[in-house]
Amino acid sequence: MPPPADALQIYLGHRDAAWGVVGVARGDGAYDDGGQLAFEAGGTANSALPHTVTHAALTELAHILSARRAAPITLRATTQLAAAAVGVDTTDGSLELYPLIRRLRDSLSPQARCSISESAPHSHFPWADRALTIATICKPGRHWGTVSAAQGALPAAVAPTPDSCAVCLEDFEDMLPSGSLASRAVTGLYACSHATCRRCDHALQRMHPARCPMCRAPRTVWIPPRP
Ligand SMILES: [Zn+2]
Ligand SMILES: [Zn+2]
Predict the structure, then answer these.
(1) Ligand 1 centroid, distance to 180 Cα (angstroms)
(2) 165 C-alpha to ligand 1 centroid (Å)
(3) From the CA of 149, how far away is ligand 2's center (Å)?
(4) pLDDT, tens digit, 9 for 90 and up, residues 4-16
(5) 143 Cα to the center of ligand 2, angstroms
(6) 158-185, pLDDT tens digit by residue?
(7) How far is the CA of 204 from the centre of ligand 1 (A)?
(8) Which pLDDT does position 199 carry in this prediction?
(9) Ligand 2 centroid distance, CA of 191 (Å)
(10) How far apart are the CA of 214 and the centre of ligand 1, in A?
(11) Closest residue by Cα to residue 182 from 167, 198, 195, 166
(12) Could you tell me the fold of the domain covering 159-227?
């Protein structure tokens, strides 16, 4: 059964001490290419420990959701962050995350649900790729999108360049990965920081040897085909 029309899929990504949060409306968490970006934010935590990063991201998420009307949400994060969010990660017991999750739940209407589910970047979820890319450009000590005053005191992150695909020469429809195949592919597929559009990337990753079309850096990550 598809999620209700006002449901939000929220993707949580991190790179070292930086985090990215992406809210998608009208997605279903699996085939949500037709989902629409509802909000996005990124910032920096005090350390790269999963608990600390998740705590910083969830604090900011609660701030974002407090300004929106209640909707059922599914929080989608990497295994490490999802584990931290439900309290089974013990790398840093000094921060209790469950009260934050409860606060998120309390901010929703009684009928609304807040569930937590895994969704890793580099595995055909473009919105998870976007959350990772936001975290990457927020490293170190930068912020992205609409954030609270504390995070907003950091300098703003800068979108990746160049703004067109080196293979098809089309301008990227979006400088960060989105549901559109004309958006910029996720960062980190090659040993360099270049990326093509998502459409060209689908073809490029089947080529041998797989190298960056701009600088010939070797490919380091392959995105498995969608099941
Ligand atoms: Zn292209
Ligand atoms: Zn390159």
Answers:
(1) 12
(2) 5
(3) 36
(4) 777 888 999 999 9
(5) 25
(6) 999 899 999 999 999 999 999 999 999 9
(7) 10
(8) 94
(9) 7
(10) 12
(11) 198
(12) Herpes Virus-1 (3.30.40)
Residue 47 to residue 220: CA distance in whole angstroms: 26
Instruction: Give the number of whichever ligand sits closest to the CA of residue 202.
Output: 1
Q: How confident is the model at residue 207 (pLDDT cuts 50, 70, 90)?
A: confident
Give yes or no for residue 94 having a pLDDT over 50.
Answer: no
Rounded Cα–Cα distance for residues 108 and 177 (Å): 28
Ligand (nearest to CA of 195): 2
Separation in Å, CA 105 to CA 10, 40, 88, 113, 151 = 14, 19, 19, 7, 23
**96: amino acid identity, one letter:** E
- Interval between CA 76 and ligand 2 midpoint (Å): 29
Q: Is 215 left (phi over 0), alpha (psi -120 to 50) or beta?
A: alpha
Of the two residues 153 and 177, the one the predictor is more confident about is 177
Second-level CATH architecture of 8-152: 2-Layer Sandwich (3.30)
Spacing, Cα 218 to ligand 2 middle (Å) = 8
**Same fold across 8-152 and 159-227:** no
Tokens 């490919």 belong to residue: 219
